[in-house]
Amino acid sequence: MPHTRPLSSHTAILVAASVLLTLAMGLRQSLGLFVQPAVKDLSMAVADFTLAIAVQNLVWGFAQPVAGAWAVRYGFRPVMTGGAVLYVVGMVLLAAAGGMTAVMLGAGIAVGAALACVGSGMAMAVASRPVSAAQRSVVLGIVSAAGSLGPMLCAPIGQALAEAGGWRAGVWGFVALAAAIVPAAWIAGRVDRVPIAPAAAHSADASSGRAVMLRAFRHAPFMIMSCAYFVCGLQLVFLTTHLPSYLALCGADPMLSAKALATIGGFNVLGSLFFGWAGGRWNKAMLLGAIYIVRSLALAWYFAALPTPESTLVFAAIMGFLWLGVAPLVSGAVAEMFGLKWQAMVAGIAFMSHQLGSALGAFGGGLLYDMLGSYTLAVQLGVAMGLTAGVVQLLSGLPLWPGARRSARTG
Known about the structure:
Blueprint: H1 11-29, H2 35-41, H3 46-74, H4 76-95, H5 100-118, H6 120-128, H7 133-147, H8 150-165, H9 167-179, H10 181-188, H11 209-217, H12 220-249, H13 254-279, H14 284-302, H15 309-321, H16 326-338, H17 343-372, H18 376-397, H19 401-410
Helix pairs in contact: 1-6, 1-7, 1-8, 1-10, 2-3, 3-4, 3-5, 3-17, 4-5, 4-9, 4-10, 5-6, 6-7, 6-16, 6-17, 7-13, 7-16, 8-9, 8-13, 12-13, 12-14, 12-17, 12-18, 13-15, 13-16, 14-15, 14-16, 14-18, 17-18
């Protein structure tokens, strides 16, 4: 596009967005490591801790459109930098927690609000702006892949510190990692200086935020994508929150949980790169549907028998490949539907649905476990919902296949 500079001139912005996403998502996805030791130390039920994770996801989801709108009004730099500082505060509150209130304020409200400012929605919006439409899907895949490294970095560090000095030592290590988000957010904020081409009068970029939001709620493909995104969040947060507990209940080595989360992160890189590339060539709706279906089948296979180290790592590899590959597809689809100016806000609307599912996956999984003493019903419900969402999302792309394919190629 005529308003974009060569990709090399914006390397610092893209690298900073990648680092920001790596740490923000890596820390958040590794909190499940501390569920069992924290609830024992603080005399809480599993459902109490996972309620805080559920609140985190709800706050993140409902604050995401607001953060996106603030980025348009005030700029990305102040919003992301403020969110990075809040992330540190949330981790400090969790590390010093003496009961449910501090866990809720730290891991729940503070981290949730921080993620709205520094999580995937903002990082993807930042990465979309400095590049041309032809480059966008691949670049989003690259940034998402870099963000996928987070669990590979954070999970082993948190587990090693927790084993050496208790779960609080692990969280204090996360405080130090969270502090590195602040300079990354500041540098990524340089994107505020990147101009957007003047919008045509009929385009979403030329509309008000309220008008674009109303248009999104009337746009059938967007609403289907958003509803399917609910199940995506449910499945993924159920795993990050409850997989360590499930493995502990099955008598697995505690380090297996960290290895599984790290494996998810490693294969996230490959999946993000692949789906970023694929999203520039094929129908994004059909790719999303295929991800949800295969992911659900993998869940059904893994939980059908007692886990072994081998089956756990194979499962983690499959899930990792299908994990954050969703992010470049959804972000790219939103940019194609509604333009760049309001991308963070509109993607935030879809993300609200994702986070409602995330809250249900975290808290609902813990509640069902406390009621039934197993995760069987939670897994069965997650698989059934995932298959349904995947089929609907897949079918929604069929009538639009030729046009969507041309649009992806031409921008």
